[in-house]
Amino acid sequence: GENVEQHPSTLSVQEGDSAVIKCTYSDSASNYFPWYKQELGKGPQLIIDIRSNVGEKKDQRIAVTLNKTAKHFSLHITETQPEDSAVYFCAASPFSGGYNKLIFGAGTRLAVHP
Amino acid sequence: DAGVTQSPTHLIKTRGQQVTLRCSPKSGHDTVSWYQQALGQGPQFIFQYYEEEERQRGNFPDRFSGHQFPNYSSELNVNALLLGDSALYLCASITRRGNHEQYFGPGTRLTVT
Questions:
Q1: Backbone angles phi, psi at A83, to 5 degrees
Q2: φ and ψ at residue A41, rounded to 5 degrees
Q3: What residues of A are in contact with residue B33 (Cβ under 8 Å)?
Q4: Is B42–A107 a contact, with Cβ atoms under 8 angstroms apart?
Q5: B16 contact partners, CB below 8 Å, separation of at least 6
Q6: For residues A63 and A56, what is the distance between their CA atoms, to the nearest angstrom?
Q7: Closest Cα of chain A to B42: distance in Å?
Q8: If you write DSSP's letter for every residue of A13-73 in order, what string do you get?
Q9: Is A59 left (phi over 0), alpha (psi -120 to 50) or beta?
Q10: Dihedral sign, CA of B32, A40, A104, A46?
Q11: Residue A89: pLDDT above 60?
Q12: C-alpha to C-alpha distance for A57 and A64, rounded to whole angstroms
């Protein structure tokens, strides 16, 4: 079945350190992999995404990598800041015929300590 | 440019009752997906509406139904509420004309007592 596993469930870092969150997906038909940041009391906010024809993508302090062979993708945050503290979700989308539901991981609670 | 809006923000219902949640998609978006997010978990896909029809459905019982209107807004209806239906209900909007990006609203927090 369709499943996305996400690790770790919690992550605590010092300000300025890097943070890495890893996900594994099961459906080989997945070809779109977004990452969302969710702050308390808010809906998930899209922060970066990657498509299956790309191995890596960067946006300032955030980068994502994708290994389709191993069905792994990861989020890297460099120079972390206290405002990066939130719950991060990875997702995979088995895009087919225009109907692109998202299968989410269980989330990683990131705490950045000043 | 308006983002995704949802109403109401919070709702408290009793077991067995029915509830209707509403969503207006982002300007220019024509497709709406609904997700259920239980406390401490990732969102789970309920269903997706495009051209006023349900196009894809997740593993949710028939008590969960929806509707999409000509202006692309959508409703989620849940009948015969159970305690386990307590969750944050999220709406996401997408446009088929472009990329796959889905934008979420702030959600409706439903509590069933």
A1: -70, -5
A2: 80, 10
A3: 101-102
A4: yes
A5: B80, B81
A6: 7
A7: 5
A8: EETT--EEEEEEE--TT--EEEEEEE-TTS--EEEEEEETT-SEEEETTEEEEEETTTTEE
A9: beta
A10: positive
A11: yes
A12: 5
- Do A101 and B58 lie within an 8 Å CB cutoff? yes
For chain B, the residue count is 113
pLDDT digits (tens, 9 = 90+) for B84-111: 999 999 999 987 776 778 999 999 999 9
User: How many whole angstroms separate alpha carbon A113 and alpha carbon B86?
Assistant: 32
Token duo for residue A49: 């995404």
Residue B83 phi, psi (nearest 5) = -55, -35
- CB under 8 A, 24+ apart: contacts of B59-67: B60/B36, B66/B34
The position carrying tokens 């024809």 is A53
Q: Which amino acid is at A34?
A: P
Burial of A13 (0-12, 13-18, 19+ CB in 10 A): middle
pLDDT (0 to 100) of residue B61: 97
Exposure string of B17-31, with b = 16+ CB inside 10 Å and e = fewer, is eebebbbbbbeebeb
